[in-house]
Amino acid sequence: MGVNSRGGKPATGGGIVRTETAGIYSLDKVAIEQGFVFTGATITNKVGACAEDFSYKLSDNRQAITITDTAKNFGTVCLIFNVECNGKAYESADPQVENDDIL
What is the pTM of this model? Predict the structure, then answer.
């Protein structure tokens, strides 16, 4: 789907957040040509209660999504990207995101 790369290099999508941050994820050229578009993101708690810290915004004709994390609460979330292609919905694998204590 193209969301698992950064600068053309593979990326896991997971990570540890210590301050407010935003990440922009874009579909690659092949995914766009096939008709994929983002429809949203599903963010659920795995440890603690920090899912409420996250929000998303679609942009670039739904070819990009920005995930924002306020990092106000400690915990770990499951972050699923929701996409659609030719009327069929798909979900990404779970890149785990952990909110760590602020330094």
Answer: 0.76
